[in-house]
Amino acid sequence: MEYAPENLQPRERYKLLAGFVLPRPIAWVTSVGPTGVVNAAPFSFFNVFCEDPPLCMFAVNLRPDGRIKDTLVNIQRTGEFVVNLTDEPLARAMHDSSGDFPPDVGEPGYLGLKLAPSTRVAAPRLADAPWAMECKIWKTIDVNGDRTLIMGEGINFYIRDELWDTQTMRVHMERYHPIGRMFADRYCRTDDRVVFPPAPELPAK
Question: Do you find a cis peptide bond into 89, omega within 30 degrees of 0?
């Protein structure tokens, strides 16, 4: 079967994309509001896509009632944020932080999540996250007035000590258990992994 996007409603396009582009990494973004309240919200339209400079991107849409999400308001005001990644022990709290919290209620405080100060941005990181990247805005793109693509440049990294081999500069995958987003309220574990031998290299004729 096939569809042309113009023949689908926006919600149907979303279901087609979110239902098949799986699993998706989750950016658990911390930012600071004007009164100092720390916001933490997950976004799964997210990925990294460059290393020089280190760039990530995630999409922030409007709330169903048309309100702008606190994450976008905070980032537009401060120009900075932290991307935290999620593993299995933090998965439920990450999911719960996607709820509709008023601006004066910080998700970390409400959910009992520990914060740690960042080094190069004002927004704190989630202390128990396996990996975090402090970011400054690199570029933003407005999409039809109801979604904003936020591109961030990573300016500082944190890694949970036991997850990283400093000699080889590689992750200890047997110790790292990230959670992926599926769709709706569904997530996935990532421990069922497949390793293939090196791909063949054919000599040029």
Answer: no
Element (H, E) at 47: strand 46-51
The C-alpha angle 146, 152, 157, rounded to 5 degrees, equals 140
For residues 196-205, give the mean pLDDT.
92
CA dihedral 84, 90, 93, 95 (to 10 degrees): 70
Decide the pairing of beta strands 115-116 and 80-84: unpaired
Concatenate the DSSP letters of all residues of 57-111 into one string.
EEEEEPPTTSPPPHHHHHHHHHSEEEEE--BGGGHHHHHHTTS---TTS-HHHHH
pLDDT digits (tens, 9 = 90+) for 120-132: 999 999 999 999 9
- Token pair of 28, please? 């658990």
13, containing H or E segment: helix 10-20
Residue type, 32: V
Token output for 178: 């990230």
Task: List pLDDT tens digits, range 69-93.
Answer: 999 999 999 999 999 999 999 999 9
User: In whole angstroms, what is the distance from residue 63 CA to residue 130 CA?
Assistant: 28
* 29: CB partners within 8 A, 6+ apart: 39, 40, 41, 42, 43, 58, 71, 81, 82, 83, 84
Q: Which of 181, 27, 40 is nearest to 123 (CA)?
A: 40
Residues in the chain: 205
